Amino acid sequence: MKFKKFGKALAIGALSAAIVFGMTSCVESYTVGFLYVTGTVTASSGNSGIISGYRIDHNVGTLAPIDGLPVSTGGANPVRAVLTLGSRFLYVLNRGVNNAGNGSCYGVGSAECQNANITEFAVGGNGILTAQETFYTQGINPFRMTGDSSGNYLYVLDHDAPNNSDCSLALGPNAATCGDITAFLVNQTTGRLSLIVNAQLTAANGAALPYFPVPANPVDFSLSSGYVLTLSGTAPATSYPYTGGSSVFPYTYSSTSGQLTINQNSAQPLGIAQGTAIANGGGYVYVLDNEPITYSVSGTATTSPSQILPFSLGSGGALQAQTGGSVPDDPTLANPIQLLVESKGKFLYVANQGNNTQGTNAQSGLAGYVIDPTTHQLSFIAGEPFGSGAGPQCLLEDPSDQYIYSADFNDSSVTGRVVDPNSGVLNNLRVTSAVSIQGPATWCLVDGRTS
What we know:
Blueprint: H1 2-28, E1 31-40, E2 48-57, E3 63-65, E4 71-76, E5 78-84, E6 89-94, E7 117-123, E8 129-135, E9 140-147, E10 153-160, H2 167-171, E11 178-186, E12 193-196, E13 212-215, E14 218-224, E15 227-233, E16 245-253, E17 260-262, E18 268-269, E19 275-281, E20 284-289, E21 293-295, E22 301-303, E23 307-313, E24 319-321, E25 327-328, E26 336-341, E27 347-352, E28 365-371, E29 378-380, E30 392-397, E31 403-408, E32 413-419, E33 426-428, E34 434-436, E35 441-447
Antiparallel strand pairs: 1-2, 1-35, 2-3, 2-4, 5-6, 6-7, 7-8, 9-10, 10-11, 11-12, 11-13, 14-15, 15-16, 16-17, 16-18, 19-20, 20-23, 21-22, 23-24, 23-25, 26-27, 27-28, 28-29, 30-31, 31-32, 32-33, 32-34
């Protein structure tokens, strides 16, 4: 009798173990999203662009290649990509190359980008991408692209407007040169892009202006709480990526028409000279300021830490400095390029490219901050900075809010970390934290639609 009871206990235990094992297996094979990375086939920005793709494992955060990828981006030197309409369409901005065959494009003439385009892809089952149509901006040297939350509109920032005589129409009589924003309406069925003309301004020839002028020397832009904000600098660009942001110019954005409306024809000075990026996160606007590192004759570095400037948005898109003002970037890191506020609004992370100068301590990595829930002030997370690949270009959070990934240019990799939901610490994945890609990464994005 005792033997029978013991046998039953063994059978029940074995069955329970089988059930647990089966449930664990299902969790391990669950794909929570697709991660896409744009880049080039080799280290030269003059080569054809490619899109790599990976399935994100829900249980451990590892990345597995999507069958059928990578594919060509449809042009050279891809710099941005955007998903719209419930992740049914993906758009890649291919910056093109100059006459010398590289992507360091600026101004008008031999150094300007040629053959720039936007290539549309349909997102199919299992994350497969199929190229559709190609579209073009109205300006010269396009380098930034963003979409609105509805997926109805797409905006591209062109570093140089096609006709400087139109600059003064939006920016006042002293505006001799300018950049521009090209706006598109996204077709809900096909994803096709159609141009949105400027309803406010008429060009000298009497036609509606096909773009929206922004101050000269734009560095970055952001769609934030009903405004499109462009960060611009004072010095003309002589290389790419563009730096030196010092002021912000706002347009009011209409969610019903995609139209951009001028609030004022002057930009708001920020009191900085080396702004590299402007980003929206948790309802606030952040500007990254990349202060230089100088060297003495002996080779000792004198560091002026880069900083993060937090703002709220006031009337007309005016930036209002937050309590406590700016906070320093981690002094052991260099060249802040992108910022991410995690989904719960508790932590903020900054990707630093590093200065790639041998013999200095300013390296690539991720700075981390706690966001005070009352004052919104930033303070360093204990244990930061956190490692990344060499030369991170972008940061993103996976759809399950467990992992943060960086796509890295210098070592052609994607690096993943686990977010501690209580402290904000970024821990290594339990398995391999990094995967290699075919060429240097330039941008990344995540798709939460897996069916």
